Fold this protein.
Amino acid sequence: MLHSSDPILIGIDGGGTLTRVLVSDSSGTALAYAEGGPASIHKDVNARRNVQEAIRQALAAAGRTQDSVIGLAAGIAGFDSEADREWVESLTDVPGLGGSRWHVNDAVVAHCGALMAKPGIIVIAGTGSIIAGIPEDGTFIRNYDFGHYAAAAARFLAYDAVYEALAGRMADEDAGLIQAMLSHWRVGSLAELSAMGRHGFGEEAQARNRTFGLFAPAVTAAADRGSPLAVRVCERAVEQIAVGVELLARSFATAEIEVALIGGVANSGYVSRRLHETLAAGRNARYRMTPPRYPPVVGAVLLAMTRLGLSTAAAAADRLGRSALALMKSS
């Protein structure tokens, strides 16, 4: 039986769309789960409030208080350099919150959850885009470290598709996609959409990026239907992701590398299928495509357990993963 004084851990997956918070006991049993708004100040000026409210909600759902916390690990989108540390650490600065805290890029906790921190590469393409890996020596590497960026985030697919349409690079088979585009922006013609574009599509940057990001599923679905425009857009994203994976592969000693796909774009039908096909012909390694084991928020708790020296053996990790998934499904 749990008591309010029993030690607990908090794991946070702070994304550009949602903040996910998981509370666990020290043996790896998930106790509560909560969601909030974006955790990145680049996506929402209220990021600090979003994260702190989600932490409080999760603690309340677990029936625990701030001083029961012995460790918190937070993976935060947009934490790309030491220059970001101040705003990132302020996200979890909840009065009275106890324990040690570790703040990392959200790709770190995604890797911990997807591959259980074993050597391998993750491809994240959803609200944001990053390719990250942990080679056999345990270091954390990213395509960013090479100065490489794969423009495969949802908003970039949508921007690319709109630009192609406004540039007149269309075929008859693109009619369905164009109609969906006009409906999404509530205009009657491409001429009207072009006029809107001349004024920044009528929104400030963050709102505009959200609007474009919401159109990405229409682009990937159109590629599945054979729209030439959508196929071109998705193929560019696939090629850039594949280059990023091959870049990281050179840091691995083994000939076979596990690769997990995370995010709505990466796991969309067309993009996922083409990534499997493209990486099957990889040049720097053999790639074994592996479904992510657990969500990033589970990876965040596992990271906290590891940093505290608690058991993360297979039994404990699986107990945490199963109990967390049950909570997430019921929330």
